[in-house]
Structure formats: structure tokens, C-alpha cells
Specification:
The protein has 128 residues and is mostly beta strands. Helix content is 0%, strand content 48%. It has no helices and 11 strands. Strands 2, 4, 5, 6, 9, 10 and 11 form a 7-stranded mixed β-sheet that branches. A hairpin with a 5-residue loop joins strand 5 and strand 6. The N and C termini lie far apart (41 Å). 31% of the residues are buried. The model has no long low-confidence stretch (mean pLDDT 96).
């Protein structure tokens, strides 16, 4: 059984920062890519950012480039999302996911069906 546990969400003012974390565990755990997605009110689940476990290459949605940074702690099977210059439109439930399939094109990993495991989500609310 693989488990992902997110933490770090909250209510902050526009312009502030937040750091989310996602810890993965389980005997069947095999990580090729970890990613963050988000689902805003009345919206579909959308890709935010991903990181390749070996090598650490990253990929960002245009809407968060320059404001968000993803990083990983391999020893702890944990991924972090540092969010800065937050905007009201960043308000969403943020989910982390683990993809085990390897060697696909980078664009494959912006799809929700690329991910085998998901966390329960953490709410991020930005007020102006």
C-alpha cells in the first residue's frame, strides 16, 4: 500500500508565501516523477509542477513559473512546493501524485492519468 500525505496548506494574504510538503511511503513505492496538481472552486484538476526523481529536472505550468518552486528530499521520499507571490487565483485544493511509469515524454506527466497514487489534498486559500 502506497500512501501520500500532504501538509502545509492554509489561509494567507495575496503576496505571501506558503510551503507545501508531500511524504510518500509504502513497500510498493516506486517513484519516477512526483508532481503537484490543484483544483480550484468549480474547476477541473490541473497540473502545477513536477520533478523527476532521478536527476531532479522540473517542469512548471506557465501560471506558476517564477513564483513556485518544487524540490525533493530523496532520503525522506518527500516533495516540497514553495509558493511565493501568491494570488487569489492560486486558491485551490493542492494534490500531490506519484508516477511510476518511466521514460515518457515530459508532456505525458502533465496528465492526471500519468499518476498512480494521490494524496488526500491540502487546501490553500489566498485572500486579497
Amino acid at each position: 500500500q502506497v500512501q501520500l500525505v500532504e501538509s502545509g496548506g492554509g489561509l494567507v494574504q495575496a503576496g505571501d508565501s506558503l510551503r507545501l510538503s508531500c511524504a510518500a511511503s509504502g513497500r510498493a513505492l516506486s517513484i519516477y516523477v512526483m508532481a503537484w496538481f490543484r483544483q480550484g472552486p468549480g474547476k477541473e484538476l490541473r497540473f502545477v509542477t513536477s520533478i523527476k526523481w532521478t536527476g531532479g529536472s522540473t517542469y512548471y505550468a506557465d501560471s506558476v513559473k517564477g513564483r513556485f518552486a518544487i524540490s525533493r528530499d530523496i532520503a525522506r521520499n518527500t516533495v516540497h512546493l514553495q509558493m511565493s507571490s501568491l494570488r487569489p487565483e492560486d486558491t485551490a485544493v493542492y494534490y500531490c501524485g506519484v508516477a511510476s511509469a518511466s521514460d515518457r515524454f515530459p508532456s505525458y506527466y502533465i496528465r492526471t492519468d500519468a499518476y498512480d497514487y494521490w494524496g488526500q489534498g491540502t487546501q490553500v486559500t489566498i485572500y486579497s
